[in-house]
Amino acid sequence: MLDSFLVRAALAGVGVGLAAAPLGCFVVWRRMAYFGDATAHAAILGIALSIAFSLPVFLGALIVALAMAVTVSLLSDRGFAMDTLLGVLAHSALAFGLVAASFLSGVRLDLMAYLFGDILAVSRGDLAVIWGGAVLVLGLLTWRWSALLMATLNADLAQASGIDPRREQLVLTLALACVVAVSIKVVGVLLIAAMLVVPAAAARPLARTPEAMALIAAVIGAASALGGLLASYRFDTPTGPTMVCVAALCFALTALAGGRR
């Protein structure tokens, strides 16, 4: 079954949708959309470094994404405004990554595939990495769900309940870096934040509880991946951007439905 590139692409898209959308709920609740962008943009630098040192692309992207997330967390306590800090680091990391990629002599680097994804070229090994990362992220969110939710709703109340908000922030950081690393092949670094935020935002008008919002977001994320793949195959459009377009249409529909209700 996995010999078909369409089956591999469908499984990869569903894996990314299931992992990114529930995590995206916390990104939406904490208003961390730009944080996701910064972490994703840093992955380009990780890709260039991993190719230069003959390391797996997933490993390089994961290490640099983690370094970016930790740097943002540390500098945010030093008096820098968060939006300014994220703007500086996100665009700097993207620029340094593109410059570093230009120094890779003798290596053919398809930047378009890394920027916008190349889901149709997913291999069995990529599929194992994507689903391994998805299971890790979903397991981490399930394990820390109550603590993460408490720290998101009220940091002071979480502290009084014996929950360390900074530790929960670190858990989210780890999960976000993992999703970024496994999503590069599917939607590319420029569209990862969209797969985090858009399905979660689409689920919001339909949900009455946080758990319901996470489940609905996961369904919308997986459906957007499959719908985008089908539309891309039918109309010969770029697959990663088409998946985001389908997710955006889902958001428009749920927003209208929520407004009517």
**Helicity, in percent?**
over 70%
Which regions contain 5 or more consecutive residues with pLDDT less than 50? none
User: What is the third-level CATH name, the topology?
Assistant: ABC transporter involved in vitamin B12 uptake, BtuC
Q: What is the overall pLDDT average?
A: 86
The biggest sheet amounts to: none
Radius of gyration: 18 Å
Q: Number of DSSP strands?
A: 0
- CATH homologous superfamily assignment: ABC transporter involved in vitamin B12 uptake, BtuC
In one word, what is the shape? globular
Gap between N and C termini, in Å? 43 Å
Helix and strand sequence: HHHHHHHHHHHH
Strand content: under 5%
CATH architecture identity: Orthogonal Bundle
Number of domains: 1
Structural class: mainly alpha
CATH domain class: Mainly Alpha
Helical stretch tally: 12
Quick rundown:
This protein is mainly α and 261 residues long.
Notes on the protein architecture:
The chain is 80% helix and 0% strand. It has 261 residues and is mainly alpha-helical. The protein has one domain (5-260): Orthogonal Bundle (ABC transporter involved in vitamin B12 uptake, BtuC). The protein is globular and about 55 Å long. The N and C termini lie far apart (43 Å).
Core attributes:
single chain; ABC transporter involved in vitamin B12 uptake, BtuC; 261 residues; mainly alpha; globular
